[in-house]
Amino acid sequence: MWRVYLSFMGIILLSAIVLGRAFYIQRFQGAYWRGMSDSLHQRFIALPAERGTIFSEDGQMLSISIPTFDITIDLVADGLREKNGKRFRENLDSFSIAMANYFKDKTAKEYKRDLETAYRNNERNYPLQSKLSFAQYKVFREFPLAKLGKNKSGIKVDVKSKRLTPYQLLANRTIGLSREHVDADKTVRKQNVGLEKSYDSVLSGRNGQKLVRFIAGGTAIPVEGQQTDPENGKDIYTTIDVKIQDITETALMRMMQQCGGPYGTAIVMETSTGKIKAMANLGRQDDGSYWEDDNYALRATEPGSTIKLATLLSVLESGSSKLNDMVDVGTSGRAQVGPDPRNVVTDAEHYAKSPLTVEECFAHSSNVGMSKLAYKAFGSNRDEFRNYLHKFHLDERSPVDLSNVPKPYLASFDKGAGGMKNMIWMSFGYSISLSPLNTLTLYNAVANNGRMMKPYLVNSIQQNGIVIKQFQPQAMEEQLCKPEVIAGARASMEMVVTEGTGKRAFKDMPFAVAGKTGTAHVADGKIKYADGVYQATFVGYFPADQPQYTCIVIIRTKPHDPVHFGGSLAAPVFREIATKLYSLYVNGKKPSMYAAVKDSSSYYYAGFTADLKKVYETLHVPFADSSVQQTWASNYAVNYKPVIKANPVQDKVMPNVKGMGLKDALYLLENMGVRVQVRGRGKIVGQSLPVGAALKDKQIVVLVLS
Q: Is 242-586 a CATH 3.40.710.10 domain?
């Protein structure tokens, strides 16, 4: 039996040793062995692409990505734990003081206390600061402990990208925003609006990836040869003109602050092309200020009297009435239209004389007159009126290059759904909802002699200065109506300003404009007609004889605001915009570029300094040497005498290679680690990156040769 007992005791002893060793490894060596196990793991990590930049038409940056820095510290790093944490203790006080003095979010004692607690708890990703700018990050790198480097300090930096709009308010909602958030299932999702959303796939580019192996401490080591570089996003050049946008935004802001309405919008379109030069959207905030919080230019609402242009075009095109025909509008300001006594239409003002011509009905914005014209033309065939609205694209989403464009609403013309009444009310701006951009597109077509242009916001897509895709003006309708109908509509809109509802607003105007006022009694969402909210509009073009710009201004009023007419609120904004644009762009005041006389003796070359000198020395041509022993130089004439001037070159900084031969440029740039693409043959006349730009490894530089 003693053998049995001896074996049993041996098993118990062996088990105790195994359990004791397991406890020791888990309690005292767990972090070390978990770190060692990481070395067996490999995985691909994403290399984020840089988002493209959105530019104005003249090259001003409207939206750009800037880096932000999130700083954490690994308090289990070997550099902080070796020699019983000597380095951590030696730098803790000075580091805490530096953090407190610069960021001022905690005292030095609080920083020290929190870091000591995190050190005792073996925290591996203790947050120090987030969303630092590059300037803040540069200061932080010089702090005690931080300047020792990652391995000794344990400090880790996570670089992220933040979207910035340098002009802040200007066209903010049109340009949009690009941001990411993590939802409940920890998936990163984008939340984009405006052009940032419409062109997200173009701006985003394509992420790269690299294979890394994790070693002790969770440090990732790249695996050589297993990396795909990211493809950075492309740049977008919009049709927005910063000066026009500023003029439009300022004029609208002035009126919004004066009237205190909930929102307003203004759009300026280039008549001949359909380019949107400005789009301002101002919404009232809780503190009474205004900000670009929504794209009201796309919001579908009842347009009011501005729809009378569509009615006028339809009536004239159908041939049921002519511009000089007389319409009995009465002098009471109200009249029954059609056989149904319930269809009583009211005018905003009483007219001293009756009847009025068709042109006068439009100019004085008579609801009675326009509805009678519509009933005369389409009372027996309501669908014909709907067909005209379809031809004018008033029942379709605007084709502008933005996402989530709402579709207009047209009430039914069916007999059981209020058909005749809906048609009559639609003729002067009710029972129909459409966006300001839809309205503007129609008025722009009349200004453009009947050619309806597609509105658009993006001129081109570029990458590294090279045009990838160019967008050209497109016609939605080559001839909207007969030429005589367009001419009649233009004459009627001119009468609005000279004799009609816009006369007071445009008194003493230094140039001719044409357009239409609109005042719609609003009922949408929670707002009812009884609330007394109005939408004041003016839409038109200038100069009236040769239109260059078409503009619409819409302002939503406060409840029961006594000043709520289009001629009183929207027309003055239009006038300010038109006056300033006329003086800047229309009246021949554009500064002309100086055209220098060509000199057949002028030239410009660049290259290796020794080679340039050798050419002149071989040909026995005297030259002025200003190269100052620089390796690279440029060569040009001053008073017919050759001058060799230094062309300074710095590592990882884009040099000036214009004037060089391709061989010299390739030698210079490829030694900096960049990739070169060539367009054309001959001497270099253009480069995709500006002189002085920072160069990255394997970055693509495009050279254009003559």
A: yes
